Amino acid sequence: MSSRRSRISEDEINELVSKLQSLLPESRRRGSNRSSATKLLKETCNYIKSLQQEVDDLSDRLSDLMAGMDNNSVQADIIRSLLSS
Amino acid sequence: MEAESSTSNQQRKRKRSVSDTPDKPAQSTWRTDKEHRLYSSKLLEALRRVRSGSTLPRTEPPRSRAIREAADRALAISARGRSRWSRAILSSRSIRLKSNRIRFPVPSRPNRTELVRNQVADREKKKSVVLQRKARVLGRLVPGCKKLSFPILLEEASDYIKALEMQVKAMSALTEILSMIGGGTEGVPGPVQESGADTSTTSTGINSLPPPA
Lengths: 85, 213
Fold this sequence. Notes:
The complex is a heterodimer of chains A (85) and B (213). Chain A has 85 residues and is mainly alpha-helical. In chain A, 65% of the residues lie in helices and 0% in strands. In chain A, helix 1 runs parallel beside helix 2 (37-68). Chain B is mainly α. Helices cover 55% and strands 0% of the residues of chain B.
């Protein structure tokens, strides 16, 4: 990065983005390098969003499950011992 | 960092099949069994804390939010300070809510005369503008990465993706286990017992916990 600090060259961008491509789930269905950098970036954003959404949903379910723990039942005891060991 | 990522690959029930060829050591982070166990035990700890702190009435920020944050914190701790996003999570949980409101700055577009004059350069410029915009969006998604340069941002994003995948996996496994156990009582809105004594080590004799790493 000698004199052009304001802009990274396009090749570098493409190289970096192709590194990212291997992580995305859908990229293995297409042939490689068929997506431009912008598409890959967009897919990355969507993928991260969907992962975060999934974590939110799982947290919801977990909170519901844990709410069920407040009962006095055998199952609740099991769960409690699971979480408190 | 061990490169024993093949077992954790087989455990994946999803359609993804990442080739974790260890050409660079960073690939094997977040995928090893050891990391999974580490995260799972931290997650359980965090959930325990949420539970013991859950004498709040239900009208408070709902427990799911607390669980999400606890899981994120556990994830960030498992990163062991390797990545910026994990440090950002740990240092600024409450600021995160504020940062969602910041608009990403749109770089100025070339005006019409320039467009007509040099189309090739303009196309490149447009492409880089769009790229920059997408990069900003990405920077907003990954915690603590709004102002990073492009290559670093991508690296953080890839690490974050891998960590998120592990988080999803761990949490869904936990959810599955708990829902199997609590099969009959799930969703039953029993009276919330605000007994502060949560460390009730009831001796049910069941020790199905995975051994903490």
